[in-house]
Amino acid sequence: MIWDPDFLDYGYRKVWAILRFDRNLIVGQKRIQKIMQRHEWQCATPHHNAPRGHREGTVEKPVSNMRGGTDGTKFWTEEDGWCWLFPVIDHHDREIIGHRIFKEGTARATLDALEAAVINRFGVLERDIVPSVELKVDHGCQNTARSRGVSH
Question: Into how many domains does the chain fold?
Fold first, then answer.
């Protein structure tokens, strides 16, 4: 199989899968990897180290309620299948100040978590109740989507 031209660029995982599922051979992935390394049949993968900017010190987090962050994460449950957790974290005291768990990772889920955080920290959800808070988010679809009925 190794000398077959169709398989020359296969890695050990794919070779293992073909042996295991197509040829019904019971063999471990690590054994395949060791054999391929011993005979130099594995390709060297290039390492692309992304240039990182020079950082001095840490991000200043002067007081609570000034800088926060949020991101969604997906997890599996036996009862409900895939679910999403959206925590909101205060960067100063590293406390989760609001969160929501949803079956779907939507923009509405992120907004509900942010609303819970505002109510938890400031007591009410009203316009101009939050004093210039900086919120760090990634560019995921939940954070960049426009949600109906919400003014931006």
Answer: 2
